[in-house]
Design goal:
The protein has 617 residues and is α/β, with parallel strands linked by helices. The chain contains 22 helices and ten strands. The protein is elongated, with a radius of gyration of 36 Å. The structure holds adenosine-5'-triphosphate (ATP). The chain crosses the membrane at residues 32-58, 70-92, 144-166, 172-191, 255-274, 280-298. Residues 36-316 form the ABC transmembrane type-1 domain.
């Protein structure tokens, strides 16, 4: 799987069971499905009737030997035309409604499922892959179900009706004209597949060319400084000539396909004229019937072409269908056990005692313990082995150590984003798996390295921590973490728009806003991956004071990069290869002159020098 939009693999066989499962999503919309099916059949019926009216008119003219009264014929023709218009209106409305409703439903279901899935699921699925599931795959399926099924019903009905009419009108001539249908089906199936594949290639190269333009423009300076222009041009020419090749191929295929089909139509009309003409001369066939035969011979192409097109599109969209259905069928790996669900049912009521959580256990988190925890992301590669750690409320634990040691893994497990592969994590002595997942995670406050802010005002971003918070509570939280002062100095104070991803604020400011958000949520466990980016001394001090407010009275885990945070931590754990190799306070560990001392002098000396330099400067 690559993190780029991929075209589907073309399946050679139509997987009917898959399409049955996809079509189930249309069942809630019977109010649209019924008119859709009825209008498709009615339109096919009307389409097939025009030639019969013409036959009737021609035969009446011939019989009369002069211009007869054609008013009834005109009236029926007009009635058919209006019925056709009405039918088309009904089916466009129903199909459009069905397509929109279904793509909305499938997308919403996928989105809900994505929100329920555990982090491990996303380790193997790039964001781009999931975004395609939510957008293009859902649309593709909905389009096929609504418009494709409409075309299919209409086309199959029309082909059957025309065939029946031809055979009833004149069995021998009917079968002769119908003899062009099998080659017509074969040619349509072959060429529709070729056309689908070559137009996909055209789209693929087109998007590669667009991406190449964008990259060339964005990286213009770098290319110039590295004198890469010639090479870039060569790469672009390669893409461009491939695009030219597939476009020509696509045009050539159309150029061959359409004449073949038209020729087959003409052959059918020729057969009708040849055999039907002699029938007219010897009186065994009316002129009107001959005209109807010629008309039908030309009318076959359209529905057969449609059937081939829809079936080929279904084959092409099968991979999209499989992916969407497999996403919907994925069972979240981390969820409440049956026992927890039972307790939630019993206790998750407004009248439960104030000291109980919705899962019926104690609400206050007094301790969190890792007991003989083993963990690996992928089979066989152990990240934590027999990991033990007990933390009490009010304690701040700083995790330090070389990259890849397992610091993030420890906090991921504490947050129950992943579950141990061995051993237990205990909350107040109960296995974490015995606690309600939603309750537990709603008691976590997490601030990651690049704190994420959403587009919107500063106020809205802080309120994200607790949606029912009042403006006063929001400002109090901001004051609590020392963010109030800088927020008031912004253009519109708390109502200042932070821009996409908070890009109108500096890193330090974003952190302060995210601290306010965390404080407002008032979590019992606070987890932070400290940012490594350099921040001026003043903001650094603000951040430290803000952190002090957050750490107070909670269990806090900090993957610490800043000296100031490490110094104030109650316990520093040096993590290496998934084990605690040293543990103690800053002073204790420095005095021990072990790993922490070495790490400190090597890794943190620089920062201290930088901050001293900053202070002097
Ligand atoms: N999602 C994942 N899937 C597979 N392996 C992972 C995943 N996340 C981390 N690892 C592996 O687990 C080990 C521990 O990683 P972890 O991120 O916990 O270390 P860390 O000490 O936090 O490192 P850093 O300081 O660089 O963030 C590493 O070998 C890493 O490659």
């Amino acid at each position: 799987m690559k993190d780029e939009p991929q075209e589907d693999v073309f399946s050679d066989k139509l997987d009917l069971s898959l399409w049955v499962r996809v079509f189930r999503h249309a069942l809630p919309y019977k109010r649209l499905l019924v008119p859709l099916a009825i209008s498709a059949v009615a339109i096919a019926l009307v389409d097939a009737s025009f030639a019969l009216v013409t036959r009737w008119a021609v035969d009446d003219v011939v019989k009369a030997g002069a211009m007869p009264d054609l008013l009834p014929h005109i009236a029926v023709y007009a009635f058919l035309s209006f019925s056709l218009a009405g039918g088309v209106w009904v089916f466009i409305n129903s199909a459009g409604g069905l397509a929109n409703n279904m793509s909305h439903d499938i997308r919403e279901e996928c989105f809900r499922r994505i929100q329920e899935l555990e982090f491990a699921y996303f380790d193997h699925r790039p964001t781009g892959w999931l975004i395609s599931r939510l957008t293009s795959d859902c649309d593709k399926l909905a389009r096929i179900i609504a418009w494709g099924s409409l075309d299919l019903v209409w086309a199959v009905c029309l082909v059957i009706m025309i065939s029946v009419i031809l055979v009833v009108l004149h069995p021998v001539l009917g079968l002769l004209v119908l003899s062009v249908v099998p080659p017509l089906i074969l040619v349509s199936a072959v060429f529709q597949k070729k056309l689908l594949l070559s137009s996909r290639d055209t789209r693929k190269f087109n998007s590669m060319i667009t991406a190449s333009f964008a990259e060339a423009l964005q990286g213009l300076r770098t290319s110039k400084t590295l004198v890469r222009e010639e090479e870039n041009l060569r790469e672009f020419q390669g893409l461009s000539s491939q695009m030219y090749g597939v476009s020509i191929q696509n045009a050539l295929q159309s150029a061959v396909y359409i004449p073949i089909v038209l020729t087959l139509g003409s052959v059918a009309a020729g057969i009708a004229l040849w055999r039907g003409g002699s029938g007219v001369i010897d009186g065994s066939l009316s002129l009107g019937t001959l005209v109807a035969f010629i008309f039908y011979a030309g009318q076959f192409f359209n529905p057969i072409n449609q059937i081939a097109q829809v079936l080929v599109q279904m084959q092409g969209a099968q991979a999209a269908g499989e992916r969407v259905l497999s996403l919907l069928a994925t069972v979240p790996g981390i969820s409440d056990s049956d026992d927890v669900k039972e307790r939630l049912e019993k206790w998750d009521k407004p009248e439960r005692p104030a000291d109980l959580a919705p899962d019926g256990y104690e609400k206050n988190i007094r301790s969190l313990e890792f007991r003989h925890v083993d963990f690996s992301y992928t089979d066989g590669e152990s990240v934590l082995k027999d990991f033990n750690l007990a933390v009490g409320a009010g304690e701040t634990i700083a995790l330090v150590g070389a990259s890849g040691g397992g610091k993030s893994t420890i906090v991921n497990l504490a947050a129950r984003f992943y579950e141990p592969t061995g051993g237990q994590i205990l909350v107040n002595g109960h296995d974490l798996r015995e606690r309600g997942l939603a309750w537990y995670q709603s008691n976590l406050g997490i601030v990651l390295q690049g704190p994420h802010l959403f587009s919107g005002s500063v106020r809205e971003n802080i309120r994200y921590g607790r949606l029912d918070a009042t403006d006063e509570e929001i400002e109090e939280a901001a004051r609590g973490v020392n963010a109030d002062e800088f927020i008031r100095l912004l253009e519109n104070g708390y109502d200042t728009d932070v821009g996409e991803g908070g890009n109108r604020l500096s890193t330090g400011q974003k952190q302060l806003v995210s601290f306010a958000r965390a404080l407002l949520a008032n979590p019992q466990i606070f987890i932070m991956d400290e940012a490594t980016s350099s921040i001026d001394t003043e903001t650094e001090q603000l951040i430290q004071q803000g952190l002090k407010a957050i750490f107070h009275g909670r269990i806090s885990f900090v993957i610490a990069h800043r000296l100031s945070t490490i110094r104030t931590a109650d316990r520093i754990l040096v993590i290496e290869k998934g084990r605690i190799i040293e543990s103690g306070t800053h002073v204790e560990l420095l005095n021990a002159k072990g790993h922490y001392h070495a790490l400190y002098t090597r890794q943190f000396q620089q920062e201290r020098e930088a901050s001293m330099f900053d202070a002097v400067g």
